[in-house]
Structures are given as C-alpha cells and as structure tokens.
Amino acid sequence: MSKSKKQQRNGFYYYMLDMQQELREQGRNVRMSEMPVLAGPRWSKLSDGQKQAYSQRAKHEKRAGGVSGITLQMATAPRPGRMDCTGVLLSERRDLAAEMEERRRREVELMKLSFPPGKDVALEKFIFVDIQSLCDIPDKEDERFLPCEVAAVEFSLHSGIHKSTHKFIDPGPIPMGYRYLAKSTSETSHEIPIEGFDQAERDYRLVLAELETFVNPERRRETPVIYAKRGSAERVEWCLQWLADKAGVRSRLTKVYELEPLLCALSAHLDGKSPTVYQAQELFKTSAYDHETGTRCGWHEERENKHCSLGVVNIYCYVLSDCLCPKYGIAVTPSHLPERPSGPLCNVIKPSSRHRDTSAPASRASSLMSLPSDGPGEVNGLRDQMGQLSVSMGRGRGRGRGFMYGAVRQPAIIGGLQQRPEGQQ
Questions:
Q1: Residue 207 burial class via C-beta count within 10 angstroms: exposed 0-12, middle 13-18, buried 19 and up
Q2: Residue 252 to residue 240: CA distance in whole angstroms
C-alpha cells in the first residue's frame, strides 16, 4: 500500500477510533489493524446521517492538518494495565518534579498575598523549624526518617528572635538492618545516641502539643506557616506527621514552606530587587555562625557540635537579619545577630615573627598571644600583602578555626549589591 493510501483518513477511520476507545473502556485492547474486521459490520448498519457526521469530521481534520488534540489523545492513550520499568501503571504515573514546581509557585503566591504593604512586613512573625533524624531510609515509606531532635524559633525583622523551643525525641526502635547507618550518621553529624539517651522525650503527644502551642499560641483557626530550608522541608513535614501518627491525633502543623523563597520575597517586597533562589540557598549554607556561643542547645554546646536543630534555626534568623535589616532600615540588635567584641577581632602575625623559642616549653595559645602585632590600625593592609596569617582571638566569625587565610571580613555581595563593613564609607 502506498504512503498516500496509509495516510488517507475517511469517516470510517474516525468511526474505528471511537469504537477502539469504547473497547478500551471495556477492558479490551484491540490494535488498529484489527479494527476494520470488528467495525465493518457495525458501520454498514449506520444510517446515512450518522455516516455523514463522521465524513464531516474527517474533512474538518483534513483541513486542520491532521488529527485533533482530542482524537490524538484518544489514539495514543496508554493501554489499561501497562506499566513502566519501575512497575508503576502508565495511567497513574506522576511527574513529581512538575508537581513540586507547581507547589512552590503556589506557596510563593500565597506568601506574597499574606504580606502587609511596605515596611510593615517587618512586624510579621515567622516560624522556623528544624528536625534532626538518626538516618534517612528512602526504601521504607512508613519509616522514612527517625526524628531525634526538634527546635523552633519565632522571628521578625523588626525585633529579631522572639522565643525558641527545643527538645530531643526518642525515635523508638531502629528498623532491622539500619542500625549501622543510624550509628554512622549520628557519629558524623549530631552525635545524638541512637538508644538509651536519657534526655530524649518519649511522650510524642506532649512533644506535638508543645510545638503546636509554640507555633499557634492563640489557637487561631488557621495555623501559621512553618518554614524550613530547601532540602530539610520534606523531612520536617514528614516528621511532624510522624509525631501526630505516634500520638494518635490529627496534626495541625501541615503548612511547611521552603525558606529560600521567603528571603527572596522579603527582599523584593520593597523595590522588586532580590537574589535568586539559588543565591538564597548559598546564603543559608554559610558557616560564619557555626561556632557562635549561645547559638546551639546546651548539650551540643558542650560537645562543640554544630549539627544542632536549635543552632540551625537560629542561623536562619541571623542570615535573614544580616541580609534584610539594612534594606529595611532596621537597627541590628543582639536579638538579630550574635554580639561581637568591641575591640579588634584578630591579631596579625608577620611571617618573620612566626619562629618559636624551643628552649622553654609554652602552650600554643600563650605563644600566639605573645607574638608582636601591627595593631588594629594596620589590619586592613592584609588585603594587599600575601603570606601573612591572621589568628582569630575573639568571638568573631572564625572562632575555633585556628589559622585562617584572609580572616578579615570582606564586603558581602547580596543580590548584586555590595555591603560595606560598618564604619567604612
């Protein structure tokens, strides 16, 4: 049969398409090559008016340049029962990436609609939550995470951190085969014991009730939105539902939005200028506040461990304050950012003075303190001098990091704008 014959589509062809779709709905999968035998007897019994309708449809499709969208969808619809390589029915397959993007777009729209006009948004209170897990078990949907620590803060641009809450959670027995994963995850991150931890709370109803009271103390009908960093939002949302299931109650903490779009929306609220979501992600990855005193809970502070839920949510507030308070004309207070010493943040050690007198033993800290310094007036000269080392001696951003190259704070670039350090014109 010639190519022109194959592409010829008359009224009978579209009648066969309709009949094929009807058979599919009945659970019968019939190929198009088999349809003429089945459709021929029924076609011959149609009246001239019915046949004329299909002929008109064929002419219309021919003028349109081919099969219409509806007809094409019917002709290419997946057969019932067919699966993809993962065992999921083609008719039930979901585009998770597209669904996530649509959810993010909808959340940003709702977020912007909730903002009051102008600088009044600085008075809005935001809730940030982080939950640590012993490990991630993607293969077990009912035990995806093992929550072991939760923390939340209430924050506003105007007043900084209002209040905070923190609790350790007993995740219960570890699923069989995942004990080593849980132990290695704990040792390389938060160091929370996988069992026998006396500070862990086993009353899940109490943990959830205290968290709900913290988020919604006035018990408003609509529970406020909770924010968590992208990459953590899924874990926070899952663990909150896990707590409700363990407590045997319905969770009211169901709105978990990503934090990065919040920073972008607040930045763009005044003048329409904001960093991209990717730039916001990089800002929240900062390690500048990892070793600030008082940022973490007491248990993690004693171990000098930065993987603390309370420390994580506090750093969210620090980043937002550092980025947005200057833009809104808000004076930074100790509730916005950790206090810093008023004196010079570092001593400068010349390469020629780094020798040690080995005749008398001395501690590393005392030997560094005794070395000569150029004084605070010449610290900025480091920017053009290679080979010099600066050692942090106070509660600066480099606390606990020992020797650092270029420890002098450089102007930060946020959203394409350069922020100058205080006192520099």
A1: buried
A2: 9
Model pLDDT, residue 83: 64
> Percentage of residues in the chain with pLDDT exceeding 70?
71
Among 51-55, 198-202, 256-260, the range scoring the smallest mean pLDDT is 51-55
Are 330 and 152 in contact, with CB atoms under 8 Å apart?
A: no
Q: What proportion of the chain, given as a percentage, has pLDDT over 90?
A: 41
**3-class SS string, 355-404:** CCCCCCCCCHHHHHHHCCCCCHHHHHHHHHCCCCEEEECCCCCCCCCCEE
Total residue length of the chain: 425
Contacts of range 321-324, beta carbons closer than 8 Å, 24 or more positions apart: 321/157, 321/160, 322/412, 323/263, 323/267, 323/283, 323/414, 323/415, 324/157, 324/263, 324/266, 324/267
pLDDT at site 309: 96
**Which residue has better confidence, 343 or 282?**
282
CA angle, 412 then 414 then 416, to 5°: 110
Among 79-83, 255-259, 306-310, 408-412, the least confident range: 408-412
Per residue, the 3-state secondary structure of the chain, as one string, reads: CCHHHHHCCCHHHHHHHHHHHHHHHCCCCCCHHHHHHHHHHHHHCCCHHHHHHHHHHHHHHHHHCCCCHHHHHHHCCCCCCCECCCCCEHHHCCCHHHHHHHHHHHHHHHHHHHCCCHHHHHHCCEEEEEEEEEEECCCCHHHCEEEEEEEEEEEECCCEEEEEEEEEECCCCCCCCCHHHHHHHHHHCCCCCCCCCCCEECCHHHHHHHHHHHHCCCCCCCCCCEEECCCCHHHHHHHHHHHHHHHCCCCCCCCEEEHHHHHHHHHHHHHCCCCCHHHHHHHHCCCCCCCCCCCCCHHHHHHCCCCCHHHHHHHHHHHHHHHHHHHHCCCCCCCCCCCCCCCCCEEEECHHHCCCCCCCCCCHHHHHHHCCCCCHHHHHHHHHCCCCEEEECCCCCCCCCCEECCCCCCCEEECCEEECCCCCC
Nearest to 338 by CA among 354, 359, 357, 319: 319
Regarding beta strands 403-404 and 126-136, do their DSSP bridges make them parallel or antiparallel, or are they unpaired?
Answer: unpaired
pLDDT over 50 at 313, yes or no: yes
